[in-house]
Design a protein that fits this description.
Length: 362
């Protein structure tokens, strides 16, 4: 199975009339390079080397048991019928494995996965170039699909439902409509903001699944698996310590594990225990709950500057020198989930748990 990185390709010669309908200058760039998964010297679409920590098969995918069960049944049924898998929408917080699941689905189906993102599809010919190049039953993965512009979204409607492109050729009185058939394919969309998708687009997905935050047991297993791939001698207690501090997110767990690996390598430690993990992550100012310096700075400002609140978002943003949208979308969600912060009609309020955590951190 191969992965094609983001970008549009030239119309396939197998589609009659594609060049005539779409024009010779469909794209400005050359066809993106195709790399093969599993080759010892290959690089994957996210820039990681071949020893990437991503699982390749559903049986290797840890956690998200309901999601794996639903998609496993869909994949098995699709393979038995020899059809393209129904379109899949994956949504949830970042770092939980939406892109990884798309690659796993392609591997299970034995087809290629073409990867792009919605901001890269600025012009109609970008999405058209991708769709006409698709082979039967291939996967097209669009990240941050809620950011698709209106024209690209309109082009996807007939492509998703009837596997055809409705194109307008010419301008003014000479304009005429043409339909171009495309191969049956599977669109896998990923988004962190499912509510921002338009209803017509969302309703065209046959499988809509949410990815949840991971539990400690699953995260510990993910860290131990990653340690094995990175050739690290990691104790079970050390893996648990990393799992506690990664905010329920595998991407953060893998990032923290790499920082621990750096400290262990420089310090000449062969075996990594919980004490070494604590030392390494404390160096990076990640505390036992997973809060970083920026999180604690927000809580400290609320406690020391405003007596714990209530205080408005704009006031906090000004005090921290941050954008209010960044605070609301990036910093606050985890603090709210941990019960350290509350949103009230009068503003943000520091909870008793938040005060206690600041005391422990001090």
């Amino acid at each position: 199975m191969a992965i094609v990185s983001s970008g549009s390709g030239r119309p396939s010669s197998g589609q009659p009339g594609a060049e005539r309908l779409l024009g010779a200058r469909l794209v400005d760039a050359a066809e993106p390079e195709v790399t093969e998964l599993g080759q010892p010297d290959s690089f994957q679409a996210d820039g990681l080397p071949a020893d990437s920590l991503r699982p390749r098969r559903l049986q290797e995918y840890i956690g998200q048991s309901e999601l794996r069960q639903v998609l496993g049944i869909a994949v098995e049924a699709t393979r038995s019928r020899g059809e393209a898998l129904d379109h899949v929408l994956l949504y949830g917080p970042p770092g939980l494995g939406k892109t990884t699941m798309a690659l796993v689905l392609a591997e299970e189906l034995g087809v290629r996965c073409r990867i792009t993102s919605a901001p890269a599809l600025e012009r109609p010919r970008d999405i058209v170039g991708l769709l006409v190049n698709l082979q039967p039953r291939e996967l097209l993965f669009i990240d941050e699909i809620h950011r698709l512009n209106r024209v690209a979204e309109e082009l996807l409607y007939p492509a998703m439902e009837d596997f055809r492109l409705d194109l307008t050729v010419g301008k003014g009185t000479t304009a005429r409509s043409r339909s171009l058939p495309i191969a049956p394919f599977t669109l896998v969309g990923a988004t962190t903001r499912a509510g921002s998708l338009s209803s017509p687009l969302r309703d065209r997905f046959g499988l809509i699944q949410r990815l949840e935050f991971y539990g400690l047991d699953d995260l510990q297993a993910i860290v131990l698996r990653a340690a094995g791939l990175l050739d690290l001698d990691l104790e079970s207690g050390a893996a648990l310590e990393v799992a506690r501090r990664c905010r329920g997110t595998p991407r953060i767990a893998n990032r923290l594990l790499r920082r621990v690996r750096d400290v262990a390598a420089v310090g000449g430690h062969g075996r990594i225990n919980a004490a070494l993990v604590d030392q390494a992550l404390s160096l990076h100012r990640v505390d036992g709950l997973g809060l970083d310096a920026h999180d604690r700075r927000l809580l400290s400002l609320m406690l020391e500057g405003y007596g714990g609140g209530p205080v408005g978002l704009e006031t906090l943003a000004a005090g921290l020198g941050e954008d209010p949208v960044t605070l609301e979308a990036v910093v606050e969600p985890f603090l709210l989930q941990q019960g350290l912060l509350q949103r009230t009609p009068r503003g943000r309020v520091l909870t008793d748990a938040g005060r206690a955590h600041l005391g422990r951190a001090a």
